[in-house]
Every structure is written in C-alpha cells, then in structure tokens.
Fold Ral guanine nucleotide dissociation stimulator-like 2.
Amino acid sequence: MLPRPLRLLWDTSPPGGVVLSSFRSRDPEEGGGPGGQGVGGGQEEEEEEEEDEAPVSVWDEEEDGATFTVTSRQYRPPDPLAPTPPPRSSRRLRAGTLEALVRHLLDARTSGADVTFTSAFLATHRAFTSTPALLGLMADRLEALESHPTGELERTIGVAISVLSTWLASHPEDFGSEVKGQLDRLESCLLRTGYAAGAGVGGGGADLIRNLRSRVDSQAPDLPKPLALPGDSPADPTDVLVFLADHLAEQLTLLDAELFLSLVPSQCLGSLWGHRDRPGHSHLCPSVRATVTQFNKVAGAVVSSVLGATSTGEGLGEVTIRPLRPPQRARLLEKWIRVAEECRLLRNFSSVYAVVSALQSSPIHRLRAAWGEAA
C-alpha cells in the first residue's frame, strides 16, 4: 500500500480539503497573532528553565562540633541589564556531637531554615541516645541561657516548648517513668524564668509539664502473663478442622491489626533492632518483638497441628498417643492453605507469610504421602 501523502497526491477525485505539505513557524517579531503568542509563551518557559538551571554551589561548614551542608543557588535576572541578585543560601545540619544537635534543635532559626530536622531527630534519637539523656541536655541548655539576655532566652524556651509538644504528640511512648527526674529540672527552669505561670510566650509550659506528668504517671506496670498449668492436656491437632477457614483468618487479622496499630515507628530502626540480642537490651523494641512473636506463634501452630498426634484415653496410664495418618494431615494442609487464602483476601500478609513459611518448612515439606492426599 502506498503511503498516505502519495495517495493524497495521486487522488484524482474532487478536492475535499487542503493538503498540508509543509509549514514554516512565524517570527515572534511579526505581529501578535496566535503564532506569535505561542512563541512568546515558549520564551517564558525557557526563562523558567534558565532559573531552574541556575548554578548551584555546595560546601561544608564546621561550627562548634557540628557540620553543616550549605547550598547556594545563583539565579539570573529575567532582564539581562538588571543587576544580579544575591545568591540564595540554605544550611542544613549533616553531622555533629549530641550537644551540637541539641543546640541546633533549640535554635529558633532551625524551625524556618531546616524544617525537617525536628521531626527526623525526634524519630531517630533512640538510635544514639536515650530520652532521659536528651531531656537532660535540653535542661542544661535552658539553664545555661538563664544568664543571657531575655530575648534569646525567651526564643529558646518558646522553641523548647514547641519541641516538647511535638515530641509528646508524635512519640508519647518515649515518656516513661525514667524521665521523671528530667521533667523536674525542666519544670524548675520554667518556674525560675517565669514561663510556667500561664502568661507570656511560655504560657503553655505549665500545661505541657502537666500533660507530660500525666502521661508518665498513667503508665501501669507490666503484669506477668499467666502461664499454662502443667496439668493441662495438649490440644488435639485435628481441632482446627472444626473452625471455618474464614473465621480463623478473621481472628488472625484482628490480632495482627491490634499489634501493627500499636507498632512504634522509632522501634523499627535497624540500629535498635540489631542490638536486641545484646546483654541488657532485652527491653528494646517491645512493639516489634510482639509482631515477631505473633508471626512465630502462627507458624508454630501450623507445624504443631500438621505434625502432631492424637491421644486417646482419660487416665494417665490409659492415654495412647497415635501419630496422624496421611489423610488427616492432608485435611490439615488443605485447611491451612484455605486460611492463608482468606488472609490474603483480607490483606493480612503477615499471617499469609507465617502460614506459607510453615508449610514450606523442611518437616512439613517431607510429608510426601500427606501432600499426595491433599486436593
């Protein structure tokens, strides 16, 4: 078949329209038609691109134990004859000692220049320090500024109250019973400087300390969980066949949802989780440990039910332990597969992976007779 331009050129029928064979863009200096407006718009876009492509200079600055990354961008004026504006610079903290980090945290200029520092620091500080130590350094900073002019002290206390309010709202789990001593220091500092009396920029200091203390005092001590009685008889592994697969999936999803809703993001840091097995660190990441424990419980339930045995008899001398037959194990495999499918429909991927990992474990994978009986 001939190309369309050749077919149009060789067509001998009466012309029904105009064939565009070539075009030439208009000069922007010629008039103000639609073409000229389009070219003008293109010039504006080019100017914006030139501004976006302004030269950037990046360097590091060290100051009182802190390293800052400074970014300077030199923009070009739209008019070539206009004077060049001064460069726009921004400075962000890249590294520093803990004392330097606290100074930067309480610096009034940080909230406007480095807007992401406060939230990032509060979310990750447990990787390199503790909450009592951080509150102690904040109290040290405020006590050191009591001899400074009122203006600097007022700004710093205002930033400290804002940081503590954000901290309490975003990470309330950080304020446990171990921070009572540091809260006393902060409250004393606010009282001495007159910023906890309910007036001035620190008028919210009294309410903040009250909220922090209520959070600390309301924490109930962890009670020991009841243990299973030694005389309890083990459950029959075939009992799981009595329940519907969708009911089991719903119960697993409810348990997982409760655990993941109470998960603390700061406890997911790799630097914390990697130290969980070290001596004295057994208390780290309790919310993450709870999800891991639930995962292992589900996987263990699958393995113990498929590899379990039935018992008959009531007396101690009359109990007979019989291993499950391949058809019984096949029914259990089918049940757990249906439970995993229901969990997947409920978007409970934690239980899905727990069941699948148990079914793929070596002891269950070797049950060839049971897998052969499974539908």
Observations:
- The chain has 16 helices and five strands.
